[in-house]
Amino acid sequence: MITVVTGTDTGVGKTVTTAALAARSGPGTLVVKPAQTGVGTDEPDVDVVRALAGCAVAELVRLADPLAPDTAARLRGVEIPPVAAHAARIRELARAHDQVIVEGAGGVLVRLDTAGGTVLDLAAELARDHPVRVVLVTRLGLGTLNHTELAVGALRSRGLDPVLVLGSVPAELGQAERCNLAELPRVTGVPVVGALPASAGNLPPGRFRHLVPTWFTG
């Protein structure tokens, strides 16, 4: 099985959600980051995942600047492989692992290559010949209904039906957060199968893995 983790935006909790999904999947799981940007300025996502989940990880492309992958590549005059090449590499890795979890960059339509291929294109390409589950990570606060509906619509336009995970739930919910717990599945028609507390990424790895089952319902 290949799981593609994407989001409604950057900073919604994709990396910690990816780590939680990897810890939940257990041994034999590989996490793949097709394009890692901001190398040298931020802790790489795969390092965060490796520390929290204790699983194997792989990066396909590393770029220095903390920007969208194609922007970071164009800024430096670097050519990065097309989405089809990423998909071929992921399929190869999937043959050697029980589970492969692919963490995208930013949102659904963020470009992963300098030819215009997006996270959505990658998920659709993988789904042509392999079972693919798409996990859409979203916020709970004000503005999330619009962003989440747009992302779900884009995924469905390519025949992909996602599930939702709330990537960073605050300890205290305001009116918008309380309402959106019910509104997100209602307006999107997509189930919410997980909710991670905002503090999850700061937990010690052992505690993180212990609590993972309590964050998911499906």
UniProtKB/TrEMBL annotation:
| List of catalytic residues | 33
- Cofactor(s) needed for function: Mg(2+)
Q: How does it assemble?
A: Homodimer.
Give the gene name: bioD
EC assignment: the record states 6.3.3.3
User: Which organism was this protein described from?
Assistant: Saccharopolyspora gregorii
The record ties this protein, via NCBIfam families, to:
bioD (TIGR00347)
Q: What is this protein called?
A: ATP-dependent dethiobiotin synthetase BioD
Instruction: Please provide the record's keywords in A-Z order.
Output: ATP-binding, Biotin biosynthesis, Cytoplasm, Ligase, Magnesium, Metal-binding, Nucleotide-binding
Q: Hey, which pathway is this one from?
A: Cofactor biosynthesis; biotin biosynthesis; biotin from 7,8-diaminononanoate: step 1/2
The subcellular localization recorded is: Cytoplasm
Mind telling me which InterPro entries this protein's record contains? DTB_synth_BioD, P-loop_NTPase
Family, per entry: Belongs to the dethiobiotin synthetase family.
Q: What does this protein do?
A: Catalyzes a mechanistically unusual reaction, the ATP-dependent insertion of CO2 between the N7 and N8 nitrogen atoms of 7,8-diaminopelargonic acid (DAPA, also called 7,8-diammoniononanoate) to form a ureido ring.
Record's catalysed reaction(s)? (7R,8S)-7,8-diammoniononanoate + CO2 + ATP = (4R,5S)-dethiobiotin + ADP + phosphate + 3 H(+)
Where is the major localization of this protein? cytoplasm
Matching SUPFAM superfamilies: P-loop containing nucleoside triphosphate hydrolases
Binding-site residues, ATP = 11-16, 45, 103-106
Where along this sequence does the record place binding of Mg(2+)?
A: 15, 45, 103
Provide the binding site for substrate: 37
